[in-house]
Amino acid sequence: xxxxxTPPPERDYPAARLELRTQQLVARIESDQRPNQERxxxxxxxxxxxxxxxxxxxxxxxAVTALLPAxxxxxxxxxxxxxxxxxxxxxxxxxxxxxxxxxxxxxxxxSLFMDTAVTNGQRxxxxxxxxxxxxxxxxxxxxxxxxxxxxxxxxxxxxxAWLAAGKPDLTGSRNSDRSFQAGGxxxxxxxxxxxxxxxxxxxxxxxxxxxxxxxxxxxxxxIGDLLRETYAPPAVRSALYTIASQLPGVELVGAVHDQxxxxxxxxxxxxxxxxxxxxxxxxxxxxxxxRQQVIGTNPSQVQPWVPVGTVLESTAYxxxxxxxxxxxxxxxxx
Length: 334
Description:
By secondary structure, the chain is α+β, with helices and mostly antiparallel strands. It has one domain. It is 25% helix and 28% strand. It has 7 helices and 10 strands. A hairpin with a 5-residue loop joins β6 and β7. The protein is globular, with a radius of gyration of 20 Å. The termini are far apart.
């Protein structure tokens, strides 16, 4: 039986996320060389930490150059209002000290990524499920542990096609547990960011904090990357929500539940028929999840066989905090 991968389109990734993507591609290539491994699976991740140095050259080589469009007009009044409320909520939160020497920033996430396999001429759209835990010290040392879950299917027709094909292995086993010496991981330090929204916004738009293509869509992505760092000073998180409240093109999705069923408020930016959402707790401002969903047809960005309404990827943050070792965990996001 022949199984062929038909990968969804790539987007421009800033350097840190692209480095992580490169490491995942390397892992795929290595696994494809194992006996009886028929296919590889595709993963995308927007986690802001990444394997450093060794992936830089490869990341540059595979980087794409298409620019994301800027938004038009201002944010919707409803989105601006809920984001200003989130900014006030963030400012009231108690600070979380950054890791001291010997401590680590711990993050646990649950992600799903849509993938497509082709078997006997039949496309099967399915989701890969990934549990990821990371411990990162201020010196770049740490640990990253990943575990795959069983795939699920985008539609019942996809599951029927998989059953008719004889239940082929779609994902393989990609569990891993890696440790890193000092300098092996990149460590973002949000404590050094300005708390003035105008100054912080300029650094983001200049791509000084995080690299990436120009445009408001990428600015929205970077804001999400920085909000993910739960140990950022409350004033920095408040400034980030303030910047988002003024960003042209930001829309209010409203009350939603993330993939784990937790209630939150979602705001979004639409680019190339894909809606990128940030889901946060309106009471604490904590970022609960991120999600990308197809909301229209644009063959240059999404394959025509991907149904409108399909979630392309989703990541829920289920634990985050500063811990004393690479085996200690935090059970819930602050």
